[in-house]
Amino acid sequence: MNENIKTENPKVYNRCKFTVSEDKLMVFMSCSFESTAEQDLLLEDIYSKISRMGISNNLDEPELITAIEKARNNGEGVTDLLIIKGISPVMPQDGKLEWMKDYFAEGYYVDPDTKAIDYRQKAELLTVTEGESLVKVYQEISGENGCDVYGKLIRVQSPKKVNVRAGQNVAWDSDEGVYKAKCSGRLSFKSNLIEVLDLYSIFGDVGLETGNIKHNGDVQIKGEVISNFIVEATGNIEIGGVVGASNIICGGDLIVKGGINGNIENKIIVKGNVYSKYCNNALIECDGDIHIKVGIHHSHFYCSGKAICDGVVMGSVITAAKGISVAEAGSKNNTDTTLVSGVDYKLMNLIKKLSEDRENAKKDLIVHEINRKKIATIGNILNDKQKAVLDEINSDIVETKKNIDELLEEEKRNRRLINSIRDTEIEIIDTVYTETILRVQDSLFRVSNTLKGPLVASIDNTTGKIGLCSKSDEKIK
Question: Measuring CA to CA, which residue among 298, 293, 325 is closest to residue 311?
Answer without folding.
Answer: 293
